């Protein structure tokens, strides 16, 4: 399983066109990372790719935006752990899930 990290919607678009994508994890950690915008970028490219929105921000507005952008799953990250570290756990779980799907 190859994991690639991008830091902008433009980089994400380039990755989506460069090779097949099996799962996209979007970090929503404003103001640095707008995961909802990243989900919209993926959906404009391919509506069938599973997309996970991981966020420490839990509020109704974010939940509604995630639903409207057609996120596949939304995962709440613990607020007492740095976002990058918490996201690394989600990446590990996602890799395990993809491996199980391939079996």
Average pLDDT reading: 83
Binned strand content: 5-15%
User: Spans with pLDDT under 50 lasting ≥5 residues?
Assistant: none
What does the oligomeric state look like here? single chain
Total discrete domains = 1
How large is the count of helical segments? Answer: 4
Task: Characterise the protein shown here.
This protein has 103 residues and is an alpha/beta fold. It has a single domain (9-101), classed as Rossmann fold, CATH 3.40.50.2300. Helices cover 49% and strands 14% of the residues. The chain is built from four helices and three strands. The protein has helices spanning 9-18, 35-45, 60-68, 83-102; strands at residues 24-28, 51-55, 73-76. The chain has a three-stranded parallel sheet, sandwiched between helices. α1 (9-18) runs parallel beside α2 (35-45). The radius of gyration is 13 Å and the shape is globular. The mean pLDDT is 83. This is Response regulatory domain-containing protein.
